[in-house]
Amino acid sequence: MWVGVRKRELGAIAHYTGLLVASLALVMVVPLVTALLSAEWDPALDYACGIGVAAAFGFLLAQGAPRGAHINRRDALIVTALSWLAGSLVAAVPLALSGHYGSFLDAFFDAISGLTTSGLTLVQDLDHLASAHNMWRHLLHLVGGQGIVVAALSVALGLRGGGAMSLYIAEGRDERIMPNVMNTARFIWFVTAVYVLAGTLVLSVVNMVAGMEIGRSVLHGFWATVACYDTGGFGPTSMNALYYHSPVFEIVTMTLMLAGTLNFNLHADLWRGDRTEIFKNLEARALAINIAILSVAVGLGLAVAGAYATPAEVLRKGLYHLISANSGTGHQTVYASQWATGFGGLAFAAIILAMAFGGMASSTAGGIKALRLGLIVKGVVLRIRESIAPGSAVIRSTYHHLVDVPLTADVLANALMLFTLYTVTYISGAMIGAAYGYPAGDALFESVSATANVGLSTGITAPGMPAGLKIVYILQMWAGRLEFIALFALVASVFAAARRRRAGA
Amino acid sequence: MRRAALVLAVASLLLVAAPAFASGAAVDATGPELVSSDGALDGSTVRFTGEVISEPLAGGDGHVWVNVLADGTAIGVWTPRDLAEGVEVFGRYSHTGDVVRVTGVLNETCEAHGGDLDVHAQHIEIIKRGERREHPADWWKLGAGLAGLLAAYAGWRRMRRLEEGSLSDRDDPRLRQ
């Protein structure tokens, strides 16, 4: 039975959505300060306006119910789906005012791409974009990577009480590292702060040694760190990672990408000094095997295509883009046009698969996720064992993910359902791209990149692309980040409400 | 006499055509053409014009990297340090960078630089000096922001009043029954 949302529940949904949107006004203070420190007066006004719009919109919505209003699991899913959309709308305001976007739709595209840590961009003349706007684009990665709910929980923005845990889970997270959800959110930010500080420090030094002035070194270091650790993929220049011409930069950013794709539970274990979990965890093993197999495929593909003359080049280009794809980051050191011509069929296909599979669950990575792939493989093995065992034998299977867990039909069905949803979305987006006249391979690459929140691009994503395709990619990025269920809950509730209204009329 | 005239004509032709032959060694190309030639220009001497968008970055072996934005596509140019000494302004929010004409060898997958697509410069000519970019401030944005903050404050106050009202209602013994 479809149960629609009642008026009181609608108020609570608006209230929490409003609070989450208003929290973005607080985050916009950072680019405002960046603009003031950099003497970028007009961008400072963009953020003054953005803060006003976000705060007004947020607090107007928050009128719907008093603080601490109870919300159930279904409503939490709707709040999550709506707040990512409404958050992107207000986040787009300063970007649209920057004059670097062809339309509000383009700015909205970048905002949702930033928040979902996708990294596909429609910005124009990026090389002359203000530091304040670059700061905002990368902060969107930071907030979206950890989760809007996690960000709001960390500052205890009126989310205490009934709905906090429901909202937290609805955002596509299931780790309970600490006994209390608020402390879990703070732990996630603590881990993030350690990586961001370390990454920024190292990359700032790398940039300074290369000849950049101190201020730019630190800003570029921070942006690259956030883009890699949060597996986002934005860059402050149109050349992306190629701008730096530095193998050291590539090694550091690859390390950050791998750290970003690690489940926060594993971060917690490593933090506590327990290194055994990472070796026996099904998800970590599945990701390692996935990267190993696809690395061989990319290497073979590049060698067969004769794209690069030496094994060192194959290793550098192949591994960087494979890690970038598998982690869902999207940093690239090749030009968009080189994917189709330089990489050859096998390496191109392996990169698409790496994007589609993605990193670990409960990390900042997107895609199907290594845990689900591991479970599906285990399910296949279990089925084979059952089919060859004597009829009277009872075959059971377990897997290790933080604790030993029996492989049940429910667990397997859930993994298969999400695998199917991602695959259908990948293919649907590709077919729409192909219908717009793009080559099928490029359309599939771009569709997978959008849905799995990666950001690698064959060049389809550009300001001149059809508006319809921009909307399709926006929906794919949104659905992929929320792992579909929150989006479906929203759509189902809207339909149920419409049916109830029709029945009442 | 006729032969002398012919020799003179051929000599004149060669004299006129010489620069053309010399420049014929360098293919004029746009940025997008350089990155999508699919092997056609690989290893060729190319010439392109664009805006410098990076300070000279260490390139090793007495060289530096200068990134040049040509027709919307930025190319990494690996150049001897002395060739890049004339570059003073690089493009960013506050400045338009020096416009340079670069002549050099295009490597679609440079063996010396990990397979990157780059141009090894032989000559860099400054076409136009970079300049400060003007960004006039639109003050209406501040007005809109302040109006938004005022609306947010009003909303927040109303929310607080509603909360206090509902709390005092709960404390009211008549309403508890």
In short:
The complex is a heterodimer of chains A (505) and B (177). Chain A is an all-alpha fold and 505 residues long.
Task: Describe the protein in words.
The complex is a heterodimer of chains A (505) and B (177). Chain A is mainly α and 505 residues long. Chain A is built from 22 helices and 2 strands. In chain A, a hairpin with a 1-residue loop joins strand 1 and strand 2. The radius of gyration of chain A is 22 Å and the shape is globular. Chain B is of the alpha+beta class and 177 residues long. Chain B folds into 2 domains: 26-132, Beta Barrel (OB fold (Dihydrolipoamide Acetyltransferase, E2P)); 140-168. In chain B, a hairpin with a 2-residue loop joins strand 3 (57-60) and strand 4 (63-70). Chain B is elongated and about 105 Å long. The N and C termini of chain B lie far apart (129 Å). Mean pLDDT of chain B is 85; it is low at 13-23. The chains are: A mainly alpha (505), B alpha+beta (177).
